[in-house]
Amino acid sequence: xxxxxxxxxxxxxxxxxxxxxxxxxxxxxxxxxxxxxxxxxxxxxxxxxxxxxxxxxxxxxxxxxxxxxxxxxxxxxxxxxxxxxxxxxxxxxxxxxxxxxxxxxxxxxxxxxxxxxxxxxxxxxxxxxxxxxxxxxxxxxxxxxxxxxxxxxxxxxxxxxxxxxxxxxxxxxxxxxxxxxxx
Length: 183
Ligand SMILES: CC(C)(COP(=O)(O)OP(=O)(O)OC[C@H]1O[C@@H](n2cnc3c(N)ncnc32)[C@H](O)[C@@H]1OP(=O)(O)O)[C@@H](O)C(=O)NCCC(=O)NCCS
Hints:
Blueprint: E1 12-17, H1 19-24, H2 26-38, H3 51-66, E2 70-77, E3 80-89, E4 98-106, H4 115-129, E5 134-140, H5 144-151, E6 155-165, E7 172-181
Parallel strand pairs: 4-5
Antiparallel strand pairs: 1-2, 2-3, 3-4, 5-7, 6-7
Helix pairs in contact: 2-3
Bound molecules: coenzyme A.
């Protein structure tokens, strides 16, 4: 039997989405991306990111899910999507053990409640089940996300200067490369 949600807190459920359920939640997933960019996170896009652009990007993700190239997790709170994380499976024949973590996003209204950590731990479980025992990612140097990865035991390999434009277009920022073995 499941424990009732703690008083005053809404229960958070992490689910792996299939392409059908991801399509059903496309607007909420797009909203997460728009919120992250508005909040200044470096997640491939620059501001302003229109909802339809974010939706189009996630539509491409759906296609890759259907092809078995991506795993998408969503965090639900009160039935709404408040977070997501993705695993991009390396296609290379010599890298069947590797996957890249992308678009770890928690809505600003739901941060610092452990949702990002839960998404990442579940992503690791999914990766292991698929035989993807080496995980990699990159993230803006000095970002909130770096605290999360460090907290979860990831190893920072190094920094690439001038890697990506800030979301507000004000200049280039470095990125850090991270990895974790989940064997
Ligand atoms: C990074 C992100 C996913 C973290 O999500 P979250 O749900 O707030 O993270 P959690 O609550 O699970 O944090 C777990 C631990 O990570 C660390 N951490 C997370 N965010 C932090 C912050 N802003 N400052 C300091 N430490 C932080 C802390 O150790 C935290 O544990 P604590 O709250 O007990 O101190 C969220 O800030 C986000 O969506 N950022 C914008 C998008 C982004 O940059 N994504 C990464 C792209 S690679």
